[in-house]
Amino acid sequence: MNPAVSAHLTTGSEKHMAPSQLPDLFDPVFTLEDLSVFYGAYEAVRGVDMRIAPREITALIGPSGCGKSTVLRCLNRMNDLILDARIAGKILYYTEDLYGDEVDPIEVRRRIGMVFQKPNPFPKSIYDNIAYGPRVNGRRKGLDDVVEEALQRAALWDEVKDKLKQNALALSGGQQQRLCIARAIAVKPDVILMDEPCSALDPIATTKIEDLMQVLSRDYTIVIVTHNMQQAARVSERTAFFTAEVDERGERHGRLVEFDATARIFSNPADKRTEGYITGRFG
């Protein structure tokens, strides 16, 4: 999506939006301004400021419990599905408030797709997994082309083109994860979020997913959560390092420590906490 055009996050919206005026080297897809995330009274993540660039891979790294997956789920309002979850601060999608009163969360999740840690294909055929989203969105014609294009883009077509009617659960773990990526692509999203997409995969399947991410980033903005620092260094252009701070009551709160070009984060981090984590001294 061109940031100069409408995000159309409201059902039937026809408003048009000007390009972001934020002073930066790029017009961000997401702008997080003093973002905090609460589950009930508990503040899980505190005070995150970040700009996410278009058509790049941004990696979120840090120890367990630091809030990186929580922040990721805020970007397509998946946290709305959790009882008592709420945010403070602001998330802009281009220049539109992602949590504005008129914004349709269903449209948000169509434009901002998600791939989860564990492959989760539907217990349907390979074909029906890919066609499901377009059908829900009202597409009735040309589904064969949609399915083929999505599987081609997910580097899976050659492996499954002769068994599209077979159950997707019969695929290997790596194939299932690429199928889930194809399923996300089929509804023409603008952004793909990935929460530990390779943690359940073997090294060969992981390499295929990493290669696929780099190809897809030519056309999609990708944000990935990973515990694998080598993976972040291999695939991402920018990296955000989160940590967990403990307050005087013993409660842990996720905090963004540093966000910069991946090359700088891994070669010359500005914060000693980042250096300690990537060198293995803590975390």
Automatic annotation (TrEMBL):
InterPro entries: AAA+_ATPase, ABC_transporter-like_ATP-bd, ABC_transporter-like_CS, P-loop_NTPase, PstB-like
Xref: SMART domains: AAA
Domain of life: Bacteria
Swiss-Prot/TrEMBL keywords: ATP-binding, Nucleotide-binding, Translocase, Transport
CDD domains associated with the record: ABC_PstB_phosphate_transporter (cd03260)
GO molecular function terms listed in the Swiss-Prot or TrEMBL record: ATP binding
Pfam family, one: ABC_tran
Keyword Nucleotide-binding among record annotations: yes
Protein's name according to its UniProt entry: Phosphate ABC transporter ATP-binding protein PstB
